Give the backbone structure.
Amino acid sequence: MSKIVILSAQLGAPQVMNDLLQRIGCKDPGLAEWIKQLDTVPIIKECVDNALTRLGQVNGIRKDLNITDYYGKTFGGQLAGSLKTDKFPNGLGFKVNSQGVVEFVADDYKSEWREEVERLRGLFTDAFMAEATSSILTILGYDVSVSSKVTGNGELLFNLEGVKQ
Amino acid sequence: MKRVKVAIKGGNVTLDFDGFVNKSCSDEEDVIRTLYGKMGVKNDVEYSDNKREAEVNGTAERETLRH
């Protein structure tokens, strides 16, 4: 049997999905325990960095290290990186906290900045999910290829393929 | 050969499993979704469509589940 599954996804805190983990545990207790104990924070940090690098290669988006506020003052906290555009030169910053939660930092004082923040957040979320998918499939032993393209309305479409003998 | 094709756009993730025997694709789906959760990707099934192997010939009906 083969299968198509469509997931609605969004970023949040790393969590153990107990119902799924129980199903896995019924067939492979060792795998379930390994998943439960897996420390994903370093993988999340790597995926954030890779997602920012990938988005920095998209026309009109620049990857940077910091952000500034309305007055031009540089944000003093630790960032994994930032994304800037001509519409939003101050930049949207990205942090990964100690629990592995991706946090967004920006001064969105102007309404046009808020629109750009939401657009960049959406692009980042998809890019992060592509990187997370690539990592997951690699962990599971697949050979993975990733491609991306910008659609007509400015959205990004990611296509991945994992193959395992 | 097992193959998983993934398309990601606008917050939707489409997983297309091929080459899996019996229910092993559902087992793989469980593992992938669990690891998504551990990676901070909240995921809910919007649509799930089991494709029988005979469907390759265009002769089988699809068993479609909507959530």
About this structure: The first strand of chain A starts at residue 2 and ends at 11. Chain A touches chain B through 58 residues (CB under 8 Å).
